[in-house]
Amino acid sequence: MALSGLDIYKLLPKTNCKECGFATCLAFAMALAQKKVSLDKCPKVTATAREALESASQPPIKLVTIGKGEDKLEIGNETVMYRHEQKFFHPAGIGCLVEDTLSDNELTARVAKINALTFERVGQKIGVSLICIKNSSGDKTKFVNAVKKVASGSNLNLALYSGNPEAVKESLTIIKDRRPLIICADKAKTDDLARLAKEFSAPLAITAASLDEAAELTDKVKKLGVDEIMIDLKTDDVSKRIQDFTFMRRLALKKNFRLLGYPVLAFTGSNTPDLELAEAVSYVAKYAGLVIVKNIEKEFIFPLLVVRQDIYQDPQKPVQVEPKIYEIGKVTKDSPVLVTTNFSITYFTVACEVESSKVPTYIICCDSEGMSVLTAWAAEKFTAEKIANLLKTSGITEMVGHRKIVIPGYVSVLSGKLEEVSGWKVAVGPREASGIPNYLRSYK
Amino acid sequence: MPVEFVKEKYNGAINTIEIGNGAKCVKIGGETTLPFLFEEGAMPNQPVIALEVLDTESPDQAIACGGRLLCVRLASIHPDNGNRPADEVIASLGLIFKKCGLPLIIVGCGDAEKDNEVLPKVSQAFKGENFLFGIATQNNYKTLAATCLADGHSIVAESPIDINIAKQLNILITDMGFDPARIVMHPTTTSLGYGMEYVYSIMERGRLAAFLGDKMLSMPFVLFVGQEVWKTKEAKDSIAQGVNWEIATAVSMLQAGGDLIIMRDPAAAKSVMKYIEMVMKK
């Protein structure tokens, strides 16, 4: 938690010596709080004060990076308990489990299936971020072979889940440039794996049975030189785990409790796909940084990824599409012209229904600052004047021969005014996008 | 290394609402902390899943699902959808009630004029049964509130993802003499992927305000998850995906503080019921 200027002032020498360039210690403290100046400017600060200030300036939840390059997974560094306080910053990773007990063919098939788990939704590409290879066989050779096969078969980020330091070491030598996450499967081997994490500068997930134990282990691992740590809590039931995730986040954010200030790793434990989905959704909603699932069916993963997309959406900034003319299908001079707002969910819902109608159509998105139709109308961001102006300036007059525009049913009240200011004929479309296919098919 | 929890201390609590009478009576609400944080506060009543049927549908499948409440949507009274008169609807509801023996949640068709004509008659026909009726909105609450008040039912008060309107409507309804502990809030439902996060955050904000003592936001939440999910392209594309979409939406709403979740698909509803059993294990 960031300290206020007054908090900082209490830690300063309060001598007003002016050597930092500020008139008073208080002024210096205020500048420090705003991060305008470095603490090094104060020649008289005590070691304890320095430690307290430095610790306070670090993020309360450590940022952990798994993998390298463009598709690396960054998690942690969260600052709030609730989305509405600001936003959640680093979307939780969704990982898929691959066990080393699979036959070569099964493994190849599973990896191929995982690779295909990417989707396009409201203009954003979403997909799974990681494959976790689990040493279920307990055998070193089998594990290393599985790691080799997965690494060569997939560009996704990797996690090595084993309690065998030799197996992990050999795997790391092969895939060290991928910067995988090491997940400690055996508490007794935590020290060995921590040394490997340090040697290969890889992030490490510790496994603990309780918060008390987690705090002990992160302390120990940190002292062995590992910086990027995750916590996998193996408490028995889901509700206990969700509670613990909440308490960890609170301790880190409100008490600046460093030992639990790391992102959480959660494996699903449920044995049926429906409960596994429900469990995974709960972890995404309640503060997990990485959720590793067993089920890799498309209809299971897709809703889970959309939950993550929703929860991590910035509440202050609705996803918007560019306000412009969109052409759906092979449009001609006679194609209908629909107008809607530039809130991406609105646009994509409309576009999707227009597509399914198979009627080539122009959609003009009005810049409503990303608000949906009714909200934008109420906030006067979707007005007759704005639409009329759009008709004039967007270039649509050159694209179609007619002068008729369809407005959403919810804003039928705009039609009179719009006809008056634009000179276009105004037709009132359906209220819900689902009515568009019928509407367009009978549109004259 | 013993870790000391930071527990929030709240003064407020969510109202407990009873729907139905006698042995079949279902309680919702009563929480003193956010969902499933049993070490911090109480969640005396587990969240309830109710299947939704249309008044013209057979309720058999929904009943077989094992819910403790049944939601009947009077879709057929809509002028564009049959314009069914009140007496026919009451007869259908009577049969459904007899068959299921469960307290009912009865929801109008959304056409204000027709709802105001039919719902009072339905309410009167089930006088004293302590059902839950909906939906009251800021622009149309008086008729429904008056009739529920007279016949001893609870009411669903809906606001358009807006905490201030939610509070305002609760005040307006209680000003009519309505017991605040007979109001269930509907913050508006949106499906996963269609703005669900707005509802999620409105619910969290409402809950926190209630715990800090705002009595006019201390009502339990109802969410109509089924009808919203099955409107989406993702659900229409594939039933298996639709079922998962409904499960994922319902679970998200439970994590945000939902007390009563109305669902459409029996398989999805059963899964969420199992999930509730799982997370209520303290």
Write the layout of secondary structure elements.
The complex is a heterodimer of chains A (444) and B (282).
Chain A: H1 5-11, H2 25-33, H3 47-57, E1 64-66, E2 73-75, E3 93-99, H4 104-115, E4 118-121, E5 124-127, E6 130-134, H5 140-153, E7 157-162, H6 165-175, E8 181-184, H7 190-199, E9 204-208, H8 211-223, E10 229-233, H9 238-255, E11 264-267, H10 273-285, E12 288-293, H11 298-311, E13 325-328, E14 337-341, H12 344-357, E15 361-366, H13 373-378, H14 384-393, H15 396-399, E16 404-407, H16 415-422, E17 425-428, H17 436-441
Parallel strand pairs in A: 3-6, 3-12, 6-7, 7-8, 8-9, 9-10, 10-11, 11-12, 14-15, 14-16, 16-17
Antiparallel strand pairs in A: 1-2, 4-5, 13-15
Helix pairs in contact in A: 1-2, 4-5, 5-6, 10-11, 14-16
Chain B: E1 16-19, E2 26-29, E3 48-54, H1 60-64, E4 70-73, H2 86-100, E5 104-107, H3 112-125, E6 132-136, H4 142-151, E7 154-158, H5 163-175, E8 183-186, H6 196-211, E9 222-224, H7 225-229, H8 233-237, H9 239-256, E10 260-263, H10 266-280
Parallel strand pairs in B: 3-4, 3-10, 4-5, 5-6, 6-7, 7-8, 9-10
Antiparallel strand pairs in B: 1-2
Helix pairs in contact in B: 2-3, 3-4, 6-9, 9-10
Task: Write a concise synopsis of the structure shown.
The complex is a heterodimer of chains A (444) and B (282). By secondary structure, chain A is of the alpha/beta class. Chain A contains 17 helices and 17 strands.
Q: In angstroms, what is the radius of gyration of chain B?
A: 18 Å
- State the secondary-structure class of chain A: alpha/beta
Greatest interface: A-B, 55 and 50 residues
Major sheet strand order of chain A = 3-6-7-8-9-10-11-12
Into how many domains do the coordinates of chain A divide?
A: 3
CATH architecture level-2 label of the largest domain in chain A: Alpha-Beta Barrel
Beta-strand proportion of chain A: 15-25%
- The CATH topology of chain B corresponds to TIM Barrel
CATH class of the largest domain in chain A, named Alpha Beta
Multimerization status: heterodimer
The number of strands of chain A is 17
Helix content of chain B: 40-55%
* Number of β-strand runs of chain B: 10
- Roughly how much helix do the residues of chain A carry, as a percent range? 40-55%
